[in-house]
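#lab-general

N.A. 3:47 PM
ok so I finally got the sequence cleaned up, no stray characters, all 377 residues accounted for. can someone with queue access submit it? mine expired

B.Y. 3:52 PM
send it over

N.A. 3:53 PM
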Amino acid sequence: MRILHVSDCYLPRLGGIEVQVADLVRVQREAGHDVEVATATPGDGLPGVHRVVARLPFDLPVHPRGTTHLIRRMTAERPDVVHVHAGAASPFAWMGVRAAVRAGLPVVVTVHSMWDPVTRGAYRALQSLFQWRRWGLVATAVSEAAARPIRAVAGPNVPVLVVSNGLDVSAWRPTGEPARGEAVHVVAVGRLAPRKQPVRLLKLLEAARARVPEEIAMRATIVGDGPARGRMERHLRTRGMDWVALPGRFSRDQIKDLLASADVFVAPAPRESFGLAALEARSAGIPVVARMQSGVADFVRPGKEGLLGRTFDELVTSVATLARDSELRHAIAGHNRATEPVKSSWPAVLEGFGRCYELAAETSSASRGLPGTSGPF
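B.Y. 4:20 PM
back already:
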């Protein structure tokens, strides 16, 4: 199959969408598909990557004539399907949708983020103006939590399927016996950005520490970098939390080594559409604490793979419970080490997208000739 992926952001930029799309491209090529990428991210040296780049402030990943460029490429190459990857607001990605519709090609749109009320309102406004629900789209979300708000906006005429982010599960599976340190080691991994509420994570750790007897030692490591790092460092100094380390960004191999010494993984962001770092930790055998309303709930069940909470206080209680109760902690770790999150393995993800591509071919054929396929991009 000939597949064209369209994404605002791609390598060499590093982020959740960029890495996930690059891994999907690699795995599809290994499966024998002819796969190319169109992106508005500058760079060079990657085969099969077409960069539609304009000189814009801050290297914004968009092109004012992106639709025209993409139509030209799509009509010349005629891929079997166009697979578009979008966040909450992704102008270049939606130019890819528009180009595919105008070129008469099947299109699948994967939404990698959680649509908040503002985003939902924006897409309802675009529907009233441009009737995008009639374009023959097939949408996917990375979790049930992310799919619900999309379905509420898309209505019954746009299929919204859930296809998990992919992970080489076996690569994260632990080898040997779990490390037993003197202190309960709590780990978190993610970008230190304000929307991730990293300072609130520090307050969560401090509150959990207060609920654990002093004779139980605790330490924490928060991996990542970003604009909130300075504020976090000031908070740690002010509160005397020298038992929390901020080592910066880690490579995948470094994260694997860190997880080998971890006892609890915390993913507290309330609007986490999926939680790839949490999936890596769960695959490595670590009990996960996360929000019940986040995408992490797709692969973490309360008392099985970890503990879930709806509120800040419930998350604090979950971390403190796992720190105090070594029997529960070891039982969950044993379950995670013995089982794999099969739905997130690459064979399952490829199968899921294969079904989406087939459905897109059917819906694209059915929608041809319908009015209302003009769009904002």
